[in-house]
Amino acid sequence: IASIFAFATCGGFKGQTEIQVSCPPTITENKTITATFGYPFRLNEASFQPPPGVNICDVNWKSYVLIGDYSSSAQFYVTFAVFVFLYCIAALLLYVGYTSLYLDSRKLPMIDFVVTLVATFLWLVSTSAWAKALTDIKIATGHNIVQELSPCKKKEILCYFGSVTSMGSLNVSVAQAGMQWHDLGTLQPPPPGFK
């Protein structure tokens, strides 16, 4: 279930960040420019877009992009989640469909155990990498963006951070992995006489 949450919440994310721009006395009302981003989070390819047919402060906003490329962490996380999901299906088929083969073999349970250990370690690594990337994505699309855009550094152009899409579903992708580790400590031993 955790792997489904992982690739569904991260892999399907789309968001945008908005900046309000004005350049008095030419344009006194704020105009909105937006940069749309999503999985795989190559923010350096997400350019700012003014409203169609509107020239805001004689700036080619499309030439300005968000900062950062977090695709490697996001793709590692989603790809590994898909692999874990497929492994769980295969293991379930083995446990249910070929129980006698599994119980009679000495190697099969050991192979299953080793694969599970490796998968658990890589799950922790991929989740940690994705959690760090998510933190950086929040910074790169947040209110500090105004200070990074060179047109916004000019005195005649006023820029204000507008908003950014809620990243609650991305938080869930990281929190779900953390809850899995927490739940491992609460497992109860099997009842006496259970085989």
From TrEMBL:
Residues 1-182 form the MARVEL domain. Its main location: membrane. One of its GO terms (cellular component) is synaptic vesicle membrane. It comes from Mandrillus leucophaeus (Drill). The chain crosses the membrane at residues 76-98, 110-131. InterPro entries: Marvel, Synaptophysin/porin. This is Synaptophysin like 1. It is a multi-pass membrane protein. Keywords: Glycoprotein, Membrane, Transmembrane, Transmembrane helix. It comes from the Eukaryota. Pfam families: MARVEL. Belongs to the synaptophysin/synaptobrevin family.
